[in-house]
Design brief:
With 343 residues, the protein is mainly β. It contains 5 helices and 16 strands. A hairpin with a 5-residue loop joins strand 12 (265-271) and strand 13 (277-284).
Length: 343
Amino acid sequence: MCQLWAFPFPLLSHNISPNFAETVSTGFQMTRIALFFILVFSPLTLSAQETWQFLNLPVNAKQSAVSGSTGIYSRESDAFTGNPSFIGNASANDLILSYTSHLAGIKSGSSIFVTDLPYTGRTGFTVLYNNYGALTRTDVLGNIHGDFTPSDLVIGATMSYDIADSIPLGATIKWVSSSIDTYSSYGLSFDFGSRYYLGDTGWLFTSVLKNVGKQLKVYRIKESLPTLLNIGAFKTLKYIPLTLGVEVEGLNNYADKKGSPVDYLVVSGMMKPNQSLTLFVSSYLGQRNKLKTKGGIDLSGINFGGSLKLKSFSITYAYSNMGIIEGIHRIDFGINIGKYLSN
């Protein structure tokens, strides 16, 4: 159906075939899980900071509603925007358009399109644009010299490859450009992702390595990209249409930051009462602790939303509570254009 953009890092995922599963022990499955996390933690020496922080912003309503933890809706078409290994779950010919107007004239828009290509198979294309509104240009003495408008553009392509039965490795390549007045910067960034569905247990394990790359042209000095390594675990309940998840964000930067380990957690939930309606709620606990005020019930840092699908159309809404600066409303529209292309 529909939603929005994408990019991240894959590693390992495996579902045992029905015939073979009868002869496989639980110990073997646990060995595969152990191998999964060994591979996940192998790049923990990576670290990043500084420029192009916009690469880690949510790019559509649904991603905002789950605080970026797209594993909670891994079987939706736009889940690959948070983890490229999910591109195999996307529906071909889905087109999703999103537009958001923020405070102070800041605007952002994005689009995503999924199709099948001869050599790469199921492939996702994404475009993200940020416009920060008109800013006043001044010199060191405070004299005004007109206005300028900073902006960012990200264009990405996502694909995955099964290295073994049900073990997909996904990757996204992104062209990134940014301009601030007379300064500009551009370069390449890569996301890699993996997933592991644990048979029919309802468990899903994920890993994502975001924003690995470099600036090909710098503003004034060379800066690192905001690389993040995330791992997550998600559980879909058997008799209730409910999925719960927890994701650890920024493991590669853990040693450089202060605060409780809880501050790195993103907790999320998804309920699907029927095939048309999906509800989401989440919180990035570290951000929530920064936004909360003292006293009373405080919902700062709590995000929620819902998605409604009607035949080939869908609409998604999300609200992000930003504390004293109030909240951000987002809305996306999607359409599966396959039947129109076939006519």
